[in-house]
Amino acid sequence: MSFELRRGETLAIVGESGSGKSVSIKSIMGILPSNAVVESGSIEYDGMDLTKVSEEQFHKLRGHRIGLIFQDPLSALNPIMKIGKQITEVRRLSGYGKKEARARALELMEAVGIPDPEKRFDQYPFQFSGGMRQRIVIAIALAGDPEILICDEPTTALDVTVQARILELINRIKQERGLSVIFITHDLGVVANVADRVNMMYAGKIVETGTSEEIFLEPAHPYTWALLSSMPDLQTHERLVAIPGTPPNMIDPPKGDAFAARNRYAMKIDFEKEPPIFKLSDTHDAATWLLHPNAPAVEIPPILRERIERMKGEMGNRG
Amino acid sequence: MADAEYILEVKHLCQTFESGRGRKKITVKAVDDVSFSIRPSETFGLVGESGCGKTTTGRTIIRLYDPASGQVFFNGREISGRMTGELRRYLTDNIAMIFQDPIESLNPRMTIEEIIGEGLRVRGVKDKQEIRRRVNEMLCKVGLTQEHATRYPHEFSGGQRQRIGIARAMITQPKLIIADEPVSALDVSIQAQVINLLNDLKEEMGLTVLFIAHNLSVVKYFSDRIGVMYFGKLVEVARGDDLYKKPLHPYTRSLLSAIPEPNPFTERSRRRIDYDPKTAHDYSRESPRMVEIEQEHFVYCSPSEEAAYQKQLGL
């Protein structure tokens, strides 16, 4: 897979569990488990190849230039360390004094919306609610003044109203600090909220990439169609289009297109040969044989077509 | 005697939990004066955020907990009273539950046939052939095959395990199913499969369902009427479309405003409404109660709020 992240943009990586979204992020951060091998390819950051960087150099990047927010804030925090100390740790490691680091941590806690930072500074993670813990994790990620923020399903474990606040917070700090964000999620509603560009992943490959508008209004890959039409929104009454079967087992990957077995539009060639990437516009690519000039024309699922029409209507209303 | 119009009636149900002892003892009201009714073959959705008491409500109805006060009627018979062997039998005959976590709720040492057939054995079906026949029938209904019967839970994927949980609940042919977050632990593409399956079974067997979930989009899709819970209280009950188009209680509005939709245009202009019970209501002079503001639309409000809501609806 290949993708790039531009300065100041939010890139969403969407896929189901086991599609490889977290693994690709872990290889960027250099925290792959020991049985994982980066077989080939490179990860370039500011002209450096991260796959060749030594562990020592990586220490300088991780947490300082690239910040990471995990899904589960409770297991990302050290339960027996006061949260103030956890936030100052990064600063102290880069050689700042205790006082300075403390002032900076309080400032960050204020910025991520933790009330009463002076008092909260000396509390432990268990004394915070789920949403507040996620704010602490965000504060820690920001402590090293990173340029890139990687969010691995940061709101999946949270309630909707809390999720809305955290998304607002991430969008705001991104604006204020000019961050570039990689956002991993399986929730397309969240994607619509945060993303400038979207990568759809299936079985370890990017099957479609495009701007947020392109993915939601002109989706081209059957997997994107299926995912978009399998979840009800607040105006859905029709029967849902379920994706049959389960994602393939990557120990024994299928031949041809990995999605073919679950794809209603699969053709013979899908089971034999992996589809190449077809270019739809400068920003929009999809890997499906349906885009081949010889492929038969297919209709996208009606439930999805309706939704797209409604979206276009809403867009018109807004001018 | 309860109305015959309803299959399940919950009246002023309260559930409390205690923790600590002596002076440190605290009592938590998990469910606080909740009342609602469900008609036969209807799906009633219960939504709310974690800790609002929706699961506790479901579990109290099926008597996994004993209610602190209040009454529950099933088909006109009170099921919240003293537990007797006969009442337990009545409950298990009529009400079944589907749980959220399909891994935790299946005994890892039992085969699928034993798990699904257990309900029949408990109810006195002794004929092994008969049990096997009905288990196989049920497996087909939920989209599994007969070969699956001799396997153990760990051999299945999350979606399949949830199907097993559904088969187990359905085999005794209950009249009411309490489904507690049946899809939230599943992958997106699998959720739709399970929702469709539940919908089919509901129609085929004429089931009444109490559907408990935190995802309002799923609840709205699946339910005829929806109750919104906040901190142990039911704050609004309405038909799905009414709730979505004209939410009245500020918490319902806040909840609706927080749901991200797969539409980049509405998302970019999304305005979230905050809900703070302290500033949203003034209950110092008037006390709130449940009011039917228009047909089938109940809101928890004080008399002055009621007047404001009516104006809002143009009544």
What is the fold's blueprint, element by element?
The complex is a heterodimer of chains A (319) and B (315).
Chain A: E1 10-14, H1 21-29, E2 44-45, E3 48-49, H2 55-61, E4 66-69, H3 73-76, H4 83-93, H5 98-111, H6 117-120, H7 130-143, E5 148-152, H8 160-177, E6 180-185, H9 188-194, E7 197-202, E8 205-211, H10 212-217, H11 222-230, E9 278-279, E10 285-286, H12 302-318
Parallel strand pairs in A: 1-6, 1-7, 4-5, 5-6
Antiparallel strand pairs in A: 2-3, 7-8, 8-10, 9-10
Helix pairs in contact in A: 4-5, 4-7, 5-7, 7-8
Chain B: E1 8-19, E2 26-38, E3 43-47, H1 54-61, E4 69-74, E5 77-78, H2 85-94, E6 95-98, H3 112-122, H4 128-141, H5 158-170, E7 176-180, H6 188-205, E8 208-213, H7 216-222, E9 225-230, E10 233-239, H8 240-245, H9 250-258, H10 264-268, H11 277-280, E11 289-294, E12 297-301, H12 303-313
Parallel strand pairs in B: 3-8, 3-9, 6-7, 7-8
Antiparallel strand pairs in B: 1-2, 1-4, 4-5, 9-10, 10-12, 11-12
Task: Explain what the structure shows.
The complex is a heterodimer of chains A (319) and B (315). Helix content of chain A is 38%, strand content 13%. Chain A is an alpha/beta fold and 319 residues long. Chain A has two domains: 10-195, Rossmann fold; 213-318, no CATH class. In chain A, α4 (83-93) packs across α5, α4 packs parallel to α7 (130-143) and α5 packs across α7 (130-143). Chain A starts with 9 loop residues before the first strand and ends with a helix. Chain B contains twelve helices and twelve strands. Chain B has two domains: 8-104 and 171-246, P-loop containing nucleotide triphosphate hydrolases (Rossmann fold); 249-315, no CATH class. Chain B is of the alpha/beta class. Chain B has helices spanning 54-61, 85-94, 112-122, 128-141, 158-170, 188-205, 216-222, 240-245, 250-258, 264-268, 277-280, 303-313; strands at residues 8-19, 26-38, 43-47, 69-74, 77-78, 95-98, 176-180, 208-213, 225-230, 233-239, 289-294, 297-301. The chains are: A alpha/beta (319), B alpha/beta (315).
